[in-house]
Structure formats: structure tokens, C-alpha cells
Amino acid sequence: MRPPSLVVLDAPSNLGLRPPGPGSVPGCYKQPWALRDRGLLHRLKAQDSGAVVPGRYQAAWRAGSGDRNAPAIAAFSRALANRVGRLLDDGHWPLVVGGDCSILLGNLLALKRRGRYGLIFMDAHSDFRHPGNAPAVGAAAGEDLALVTGRGDARLVDLDGLGPSLRDDDVVLVGIRPQDEDRAELKKLGIPVITSTSLRRAGIVATARRTLAHLGKRVHGFWIHLDWDVVDLTEMPAADCPEPNGLSFKETAAFLRTLVRSPRCVGLEVTIYDPDLDPQGMVAERIVACLETVFRGARS
Question: Containing domain of residue 164, as a range?
Fold first, then answer.
């Protein structure tokens, strides 16, 4: 059975991405509609919690000005945090459908307001660019993990005056590719990293259980971030930066099923799928089928 209080909340923001080309905007904000068109709510037997509407995307940006659309991202993050917080207060289990990876800021802000929570970060990339390791920042979707741990554009790292939303030791990275340029820094910081190759070698379900054990009981619960580019590009080409050597949808579902069975798992966000790159909707169908597998019998 699905989680009895499973709700779907749309977070259709593309504010954290660079424009894909002159005169165009990133299409990942269309993900909620593409998945709904494939019967997401019915197939998950989920309640509809509506949407949090982002501000206008501004493509203009200049080097040294911080993150593109930072004021709009900050405003959207607070609005998303308010909505997610109300859902949690009412006993719901939110599936937040993005949008780009910057929606992580609002979801973790909601949890920061409630106490100390952990994060299982499933992504092909570490998203850890910040002023300490890069000449400039500019796109929050490539910096979301850095931002929620307190590194980056000052307008986005401390949205409520509560400090970073996440402690370094309360996050586990899963599925990033072995060649990720920030692995050495993450290792130095003591942030656990499970690459796509090591995950497959160690076993999907066994690794998921070890990931849960790592978070332990020092946190009140944990959130899951899922960027669909964690899936190999042969199955998931409809992303702004698809990567080889990734998981299959079947492996992704098996890992997620183990996580959402935990009573300490409080929600999941899914990001980056771009319907503009999937005109026939084949990837949308794979995504909904994956989520259907995740939630079928996952919790009671």
C-alpha cells in the first residue's frame, strides 16, 4: 500500500538553471504536468495538494552577481517551506514534483524549522559548487547541496536566520559518478559519498540499509532528493545534463523503496526531468512507473 497520507505537491520552478539557449528557458518546470498527464495521482492513489507558483524566470545574469534569480528563489523557497510545513503538520507525506534542484532549499527549510533532519541526496552530480571551490557561482540548481549546508550566495544560505538547513554529517550522497570533481572536497569534509559504481557493486538494497543506519537516530527524520539524472542516460536522456554509468530505473526504484519504508522518511522530491526533451512522453511513463513501484506496498 502507498503511504496513507501521500500527497503530491507541484513545485514547478526552473529558477535555478541557466537558459538552455538564447531566447529560451529550461523546460523542467513542466515535469508536474507531464507526470500528471501519465496518471501520476491515480496510479499512486495520492491526494492532490496543488502547486507553489514560482516567480518569473530571468535569463539575464552577469558574472560576480551571485546566483541567477536569487531573490525569486529565496521567495519561492519560503513559500514552498510554508506549504510543506503545513502538510507535515497535518500528518501528510509529501511527494514534491519539481522543477529544478533548487527546490531543495524550500523543502529543507521546512524541516529546519522543525528540528534536525537528514538528507539522502540521489543525483548524478554532487551539486557542491560554491565560492570556495569555483571562480563564480551562478546557477543554484548546480549548487543546491552547497547552499543547504551554508556555502554560497548569502541571499540563499540562511533564509530564516536559522543557519544552514543541513549539517555536513547529516547528508549522504548516492549515485554521483566516480569522476565528480568535488569528491575530494566532500571526502575531506567527511560527507559520505556512494558512487553509482560502488552502489551497484555493494548491492542496491544492502547499501540503502547502510545509508539509513548512517543517519541513525541523531536526526528526527530524513528527506530524499532525487534528481532523475541519477538514472543512466540510456534510460533517462531527458535531463539538462544526462550522464552515463548511472542506475537503471529498476535499481532506482529498489533503492527508494527501501528508504520510504522507513518510518523516519518524511518526504521525497523529484527534479530535473525536462518534457521538452521527451516529446513522445516515453521518459515520463518510465518515471511514473518507477514511482508506482516505489510506493506500491512500500509503507502501511
Answer: 6-57+66-295
